[in-house]
User: What shape does this take?
Amino acid sequence: MSELPQEFTVGLLLYDNCDLLDIAGPNEVFQFLGLFYGDVVKLSIVTVGGALRSPEPIQAGGITVTPMVSFQNCPKLELLFVPGGNGEGLQASISDDTLLDFLRRQAESASYVTSVCTGGLLLAAAGLLDGYKGTCHWAVVDCLRLFPQVQVPDGYPRWCEDDQRAAGRGIRITGGGISSSIDESLYMVQRIVEDLTHQPERGVEASRAVQLAIQYNPGPPNTPPPGGDPDSVDPQLLERMTGNMSPFHEQVCTAVRQRIDSSA
Amino acid sequence: MSELPQEFTVGLLLYDNCDLLDIAGPNEVFQFLGLFYGDVVKLSIVTVGGALRSPEPIQAGGITVTPMVSFQNCPKLELLFVPGGNGEGLQASISDDTLLDFLRRQAESASYVTSVCTGGLLLAAAGLLDGYKGTCHWAVVDCLRLFPQVQVPDGYPRWCEDDQRAAGRGIRITGGGISSSIDESLYMVQRIVEDLTHQPERGVEASRAVQLAIQYNPGPPNTPPPGGDPDSVDPQLLERMTGNMSPFHEQVCTAVRQRIDSSA
Assistant: This one.
């Protein structure tokens, strides 16, 4: 068992049109982990984006965010987190070899390779989900299935863990759409604290402590009945929203097909 | 009934040490409202911060964010949203007359005056919760009670609405801690669409549609039993976390007392 607290750098990828809530979930959750579990992890968070040495501002959900480091000078990450996004920024990233090379390079040494929402498509485009189970936003989960080596579970889980560390192949944790990043990050807190302390109950306790810190006792309006994913909503609403999202779905499928063809 | 779609500007306040998840929730939810309900609202979102004409970058949850507009050149807002924060940035804001004057000015014409987390303390410091019900993060809800004219409901609601429009006094919607901003924003979508269309069922439908878009079918790990607020967690965990948060609690209470004394 290594000495505690362990240095632990979380890297949140930023790219144009990435989603702000996708990043804000883990940023919040990991900050509280570092604050309240300083005896376990000496945690730092870096935002990383762009190929230039000096990071340029990017648009995350329409809000201007400046990464702390770039692909060139990013430190070795213990946890790599890839957020989802949309529009041209996501399409461009699926085919951006510099970005995908950065993900591959960090994934070689990172203990945890993770994503939420369409970030799972970026991990897949980098080949990092080959031979792993993974999921993403419900509206484009069939685009993830286009990658022949990725095993996509049925349904719309909040997150999906595939731990192949016993076989020397690392661990992948991929989240569903957007808001899933909060549930997923609380699970990652549990996983990390358990891994570092070898005390499963401390992992659960840490997750619950952070959940309390962010006052996460979720209660969406108009529930019950539940809502929020295709298995839990009114079929008419699902049909209409699937229609609303079809241009996005088409764009993403096209970008994924081009990526797969170019790597073939 | 006014013509639809109605121009509708959402303003998200930014200040140093404000919380990124507090902003990311409404930013995400209102973006989807604008995208899918363009027949009801012509919605735009601005981030606003700083007294200078040209906004300077601020630190939101440790991440560098640049506001779109400043207090000087912010357009008239239809919905004013005040996020929570912590540390020196929050303390300074509670006594920042320029910031509080900006809130008062916008609140005069805004249809919806809203906050989440310790943002409720800023509304209260500006006098904007005088005579209204309001809530905030569980750890500092007693600091909100220090304001003699604010009515703080018992417990830890996800959000609290006080609609005094029939009496010509406007509406206040205040959220609980941090993650509450998602539930609260989904409720605000319902409220706004109902107000604009006079069709309550369209409000519910819009809220559910956005909930599906962000795949918000929450499922924190290790639940049930639930967690995430003082009424739903293990008493030992609550005691420990209350202890962990006591320096923050003291800072906030001190800042609030100073504010109240200086306005007396």
About this structure: Chain B has a mean pLDDT of 95.
